[in-house]
Write a structure and sequence with these properties.
Chains A, B: InterPro entries: Bact_HTH_transcr_reg, Chorismate_lyase_/UTRA_dom_sf, TreR, Tscrpt_reg_HTH_GntR, UTRA, WH-like_DNA-bd_sf, WH_DNA-bd_sf. The structure is a homodimer of 237-residue chains. Helix content of chain A is 30%, strand content 34%. Chain A has 237 residues and is of the alpha+beta class. In chain A, helix 1 crosses helix 3 and helix 2 crosses helix 3. The interface between A and B is large, with 54 and 54 residues. Chain A binds a DNA duplex (19 and 19 nucleotides) through helix 3.
Chain lengths: 237, 237
DNA sequence: AAGTGGTCTAGACCACACT
DNA sequence: GTGTGGTCTAGACCACTTC
């Protein structure tokens, strides 16, 4: 583990457990240097990560303030898998694999997913239920070139855990789009509801070397959908 | 302007104009050092900003790849005002100020907005129309302590431009929440539609010194709503 | 004036990708 | 092996807040 990551984790943990309470200052950069026995740059890298994640705000001449986490604040944004989310929120949810098959990308699927025409991909459809009620339907497409093997068991647990843990893939970034769409007959059947609309999240997900490995359409029941985000202003358009 | 910001802007412009085309590599860090006559750290800071914004992806041992911007990619995420958005997308839209008043924060408004009870705030309601049809209704609350003066004219143009340009406020970060809600009678009247649902974006916005200056509820017509995001995976939960 | 974070530099060594 | 980005260090000076 890199030094600045360790410092980041340590500070994050201390903020979480109120050892550094909200509305107070973190130790100064100089003090942190001494505490962890590293150079200033390394401390600053860890602080930059905390800043990025919305945990602190640095004020020049004053210090690094710990931000209070509002009620509305848990990380639903970013690039986090459903399984990781339910774990960190300690929700009890159930994943059901509806179908799992290999398909060849045709031209319309190519423009939708971003995959090359004629390439082979896995198509997985899964439902996510809370309290026995379906709240999300996910349709995933995974490049077979990068994910040679996929089973019901893996899809039922966590595909991301398998990709990162077993296959050692480096999941790096994603482009997402959120819209609200009218429901189709099949969707109403899968979700066991009569809603006219659902929230649709399309995302293309890429590895660290810029190869695309996934395209997902995630359909959320409209009354179960909630997206929380921390954003910083870019003074540099 | 800071050196790394200038380099960032220059590189960004050169990517935008295809001088550095998508799918190709940027010059190496060493070359960029020589081009701009700065140290490696300064180059790396500029590259970090491009990475953050989803314009490039660095691959160890290979270089900095310019990412192709998908069709679905314009910056609706982040912390950008409506006026800035319509400008950068070159949409012709109209803002109508529905009301502008000063109110004193009571306890229920306090817990909603995050402002102190008994403090004074401006309340502004505005509609945004495209092609003569209302697509967004914004309700803003602005701390009077930080924004002593507010007029119809300012609210009609761009409040952010006024705050940053005239008042010199440093708008830094925001916490947002997106949900879908049933419409009320008034909302249907304001939006001149019969939709049952709308998209609600609540946001609390803060200055660089962590003081909150704004709370906004932005209500979007369901078929006009679109949110696009670039997200990086945090391997550090 | 003292203390704090912000910027910038120069140099070292490591990890990874290419050929 | 060579070249690339990743990490880490040590030191300098500036800008801002606080007293």
């Amino acid at each position: 583990m890199k030094k600045y990551q360790e410092i980041y984790h340590d500070l994050k943990e201390k903020i979480r457990t109120n050892l550094y309470p909200a509305e107070t200052s973190l130790p100064t950069e100089q003090q942190l240097q001494e505490i962890y026995g590293v150079s200033r740059d390394t401390v600053r890298k860890a602080l930059a990560m905390l800043t990025e994640g919305g945990l602190i705000q640095k004020v020049q001449g004053r210090g690094s303030m710990v931000l209070k986490q509002e009620i509305l604040n848990f990380p639903v944004s970013g690039l986090t898998s459903y399984q990781e989310l339910t774990n960190s929120l300690q929700l009890s949810s159930q994943t059901q694999v509806v179908s799992l098959e290999q398909v060849t990308v045709n031209s319309s699927l190519a423009s939708l997913t971003g995959f090359e025409p004629y390439s082979k991909v896995w198509k997985v459809v899964r439902t996510r239920s809370i309290d026995g009620k379906v709240s999300v339907v996910d349709t995933d497409y995974l490049a077979e070139e990068l994910v040679p093997e996929l089973t019901f068991e893996i899809a039922e647990k966590s595909i991301y855990e398998y990709l990162e843990g077993q296959l050692g893939l480096d999941i790096a970034y994603a482009q997402k789009e959120i819209t609200v769409e009218p429901t189709s007959r099949e969707e109403r059947d899968l979700m066991q509801c009569q809603d006219d609309y659902l929230v649709l999240i399309k995302s293309r997900v890429y590895l660290g070397d810029t190869r695309q490995f996934q395209y997902t359409e995630s359909k959320h029941k409209i009354d179960k959908f909630r997206f929380v985000d921390f954003a910083r202003r870019k003074h540099s358009l």
